[in-house]
């Protein structure tokens, strides 16, 4: 039976929830990822991690992904669709409140760094309401945006969506140096291509290995999440 809650009729969902099913919600974005990666990159990563979680645990159902996030820093690149910090916070809050009418526990898997502040505020509010929700934000060493790391992961998930012939190196300075510039002028102020890093040399094999590592962290965190906690 499908792990996707949207594929199931409501009586089945009610039965699974009554048996203790956890709802995993992938949170991503629709934003530029350089000239070689799809705008769905962050959402695809969140979905991939939720799928691995559901494959490892038969008590996990997956909600339809939220493909819009706080992506104002990517303004000026065609196709970027940002709902901003305030709307994202409100969306996540309302979504989890609704989910908690059925599910006792909800795990949010947010794979876009720009979502962090808004989603954290939403989870703090939900905890104050005694909602049992876990926020997981995968992180990895490597280039911050559309560089080798993300390119490798998309190559492992959706190679037909990657155009390595169009891949170019962007600003390769460490993210610590770039962050003040990104906050004031956005990505376009430091990288006309939208790339932060260099995608050259990325392979599907390294992407698959990284996704497995990230999924193992998620699985471990969910497994150690005690029932009735407000982590």
Give an overview in words:
It is a single chain. The chain is α/β, with parallel strands linked by helices and 231 residues long. Helix 2 (41-56) packs across helix 7. The protein is globular, with a radius of gyration of 18 Å. The model has no long low-confidence stretch (mean pLDDT 96). It has one domain (5-223): Rossmann fold. A 4-stranded parallel beta sheet has the order 2-1-3-4, with helices on both faces. The chain has helices at residues 10-18, 41-56, 84-99, 116-128, 148-157, 175-185, 204-223, and strands at residues 22-27, 60-62, 105-110, 133-136. The longest helix has 20 residues, at 204-223. Helix 4 (116-128) links the parallel strand 3 and strand 4 (133-136).
The beta-strand count equals: 4
Q: Taking Cα atoms only, what radius of gyration do you get, to the nearest Å?
A: 18 Å
List the total number of helices: 7
Order of helices and strands: HEHEHEHEHHH
Overall domain count: 1
Structural class: alpha/beta
First-residue to last-residue Cα separation: 29 Å
Order of strands in the sheet with the most strands? 2-1-3-4
Briefly note the CATH topology name: Rossmann fold
Reported CATH architecture: 3-Layer(aba) Sandwich
* Percent range for β-strand residues: 5-15%
Percent in helix: 40-55%
- Please write the CATH class name: Alpha Beta
Uncertain runs:
none
Features:
alpha/beta; 4-stranded parallel sheet; 8% strand; 231 residues; Rossmann fold; 7 helices
């Amino acid at each position: 039976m499908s792990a996707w809650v949207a594929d199931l009729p409501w009586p089945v969902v009610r039965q699974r929830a009554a048996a203790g099913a956890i709802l995993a919600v992938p949170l991503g974005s629709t934003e530029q990822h350089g000239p070689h990666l799809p705008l769905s990159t962050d959402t695809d990563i969140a979905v991939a991690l939720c799928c691995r979680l559901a494959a490892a645990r038969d008590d996990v159902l997956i909600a339809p992904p939220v493909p819009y996030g706080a992506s104002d820093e990517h303004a000026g690149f065609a196709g970027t669709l940002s709902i901003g910090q305030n709307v994202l916070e409100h969306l996540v809050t309302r979504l989890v409140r609704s989910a908690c009418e059925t599910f006792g526990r909800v795990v949010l898997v947010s794979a876009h760094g720009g979502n962090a502040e808004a989603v954290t505020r939403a989870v703090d509010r939900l905890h104050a309401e005694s909602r049992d929700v876990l926020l997981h934000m995968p992180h990895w060493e490597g280039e911050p945006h559309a560089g080798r790391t993300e390119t490798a992961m998309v190559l492992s998930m959706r190679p037909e969506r990657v155009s390595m012939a169009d891949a170019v190196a962007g600003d390769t300075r460490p993210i610590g140096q770039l962050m003040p510039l990104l906050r004031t002028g956005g990505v376009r102020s430091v990288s006309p291509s939208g790339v932060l890093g260099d995608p050259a040399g990325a392979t599907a094999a390294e992407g698959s290995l990284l996704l497995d590592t990230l999924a193992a962290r998620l699985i471990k965190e969910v497994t150690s999440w005690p029932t009735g906690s407000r982590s």
